[in-house]
Amino acid sequence: MKITENVQNNVSRIFLDGRFDANTCGEVEQFIRKRIDDGMHYFVLDMENVSFIASAGLRVVLVIAKELRNTSRGDLCIASPQPNVRKVFEISGIDNVLQIHEDVERAAKGFLQ
Amino acid sequence: MNICFWGVRGSIGTALKNSEVELKIEEALRLGVKAGLREDSQVSAFMQELPWYVRQTAGGDTACVEITAGDERLIMDAGSGIRPLGLKLIQDSGGNPIKVAILLSHTHWDHICGIPFFVPGFNPRNTITVYGAHSNLEERLRDQQDSRFFPVPLPSTFKVVQLSGNDHFTVGDVEIETIPLKHPGDSFGYRLTHNGKTVVYATDSEYKDLSTEALKPFVDFFQSADLVIYDAQYTMVENVEKENWGHSNMFTGIDMAIEAGVKRMVFTHHDPVCDDKRLGDFFQKAEEYLRMYAPSGGPLIYLAYEGLGFTL
Question: Does domain A2-112 bear CATH number 1.20.1250.20?
Answer without folding.
Answer: no
